[in-house]
Amino acid sequence: MVKGKFSPSVTKDSKNRCWATITQRINAENPSAVSRGVADVKKKWQDLQSIVKKKEAARRRSLNATGGGPSPEDTTKSWEKAIISTFTNTQLEGIAGGEDTGSVSPCEPLSESGYSNSQAEEYYFMLEEMKMQKVELYRMKKIKIMEEMLVLKKRSTKALEEIRDSLKADQGPLCLSPIIKIHEM
């Protein structure tokens, strides 16, 4: 429930209650006198997920590495495996055919990574242009999908209207109950 999407049965309140229960159980098992709050427990969970996700992603990459020899020993602990089971393959391996956009750190000046200022500026603008092209491509795909959805909605509306008309012709006035008759005006 903690990771579930909001729905009629999974609400913000139900998630908060779940986190409060988890926090109570952690504090009850805690051998020290330190009492943690919900925010502390959530942060620790995020940190653990991040660490384990990086470790598992690196392990999976090493399995696909070439070089011969035996596979590296699996040192994953049972609690780490429990966390790994909460991830999807896409979260661990990325999108097939996708590009890693984190190859250049936005915090590290390109001039310090071997580029001259003019090269860094040119590279930056090239990346921005590529990003704009991708955004435009996705926008065009979205428009195409929306147009297809509109065509399907028009077809279903037409079909429903035809069904309504055939029902009117077959039955006369619409009936909601055996007593009340509705006549079109």
Automatic annotation (TrEMBL):
Its recorded name reads: Myb/SANT-like DNA-binding domain-containing protein
**Where does the signal peptide begin and end?**
none
Where on the tree of life does the source sit, at the highest rank? Eukaryota
Spell out the residue ranges making up region: Disordered: 56-77
List, for all copies, the residue spans of the domain called Myb/SANT-like DNA-binding: 2-56
- What's any one GO cellular component for it? nucleus
